[in-house]
Amino acid sequence: xxxDDKKPALPEIEFYDLKSKxxxxxxxWRIVEKSGRNFAVTKSPTGDYECWKVLGKDQAAELKKAA
Length: 67
Description:
Layout: E1 13-17, E2 22-26, E3 30-34, E4 37-43, E5 50-55, H1 57-66
Antiparallel strand pairs: 1-2, 3-4, 4-5
């Protein structure tokens, strides 16, 4: 496999950082399922904690295909 063969970039998702009270966009996220709900999870740009975003059923299915 050549160096240029990388996975396609994930779609950009908007998150809200509760501690800094600011919105931010991220393309490095993962999908986590908890208690039947789907969440997109990414690292906060301002600290050592994670930001979680609740996903609807349709949005989660679409993003799982992209990931």
